[in-house]
Design a protein that fits this description.
Layout: E1 2-7, E2 10-15, H1 34-38, E3 46-52, E4 61-68, H2 74-83, E5 94-104, E6 111-117, H3 127-139, E7 157-160
Antiparallel strand pairs: 1-2, 2-3, 3-4, 4-5, 5-6, 6-7
The chain binds zinc ion.
Length: 161
């Protein structure tokens, strides 16, 4: 199901079944749906959200992947969202990401795909909260290293896909 929610003073859509939910009522979707592309129903610790396009004239929504950098029962959260019983704390460590394809390690040149922190999201919600989330990422070392040579990456990848 698709449910409109309000978190950090921002309205967006929370999608519980991105393989089957009909997102056409949300207007043009500006990013590719990874679930359909890979033909998968779930990504561990991830939920799809649609964020309103407030930047350009072309209305519609951007498709983002919220990644929880902590152990969180997302099935239970789905239920709470659908019932309207979620709260800000549920999303305090949910980090907005985009799908990055063919990122390259500068050390070993290996290519990989993954979920990268969407720094553009800082322009959508609260900047303080976004900064807290970034502190949380680096404090808990959630930013991944190259899967091949273990070098630091120049982009902030939280999950390889
Ligand atoms: Zn490497």
């Amino acid at each position: 199901m698709i449910k409109e929610i309000r978190i950090q003073n921002t309205d967006y859509f929370y999608v519980t079944d991105p393989q089957n939910d009909d997102m056409s009522s949300c207007g043009p979707i500006h990013e590719e749906n990874l679930y359909k592309k890979l033909n998968i129903t779930t990504i561990e610790n991830v939920r799809l959200i649609l964020v309103p396009n407030i930047i350009s004239k072309e209305k519609g929504h951007y498709l983002l992947y919220l990644y929880w950098g902590e152990t969180k029962n997302l099935e239970a959260l789905d239920t709470r969202v659908l019932e309207g019983n979620y709260d800000e704390d549920d999303f305090s460590n949910a980090i907005p990401t985009i799908y990055k394809e063919d990122a390259t390690c500068f050390n070993c040149k290996q290519k990989f795909n993954g979920l990268e922190v969407d720094y553009g999201f800082a322009s959508v919600g609260s900047k303080d909260l976004f900064r807290q989330k970034m502190d949380f990422i680096f404090k808990n070392k959630l930013n991944l290293k190259c899967p091949n040579c273990n070098s630091d990456l120049r982009i902030t990848i939280l999950k390889f896909i």
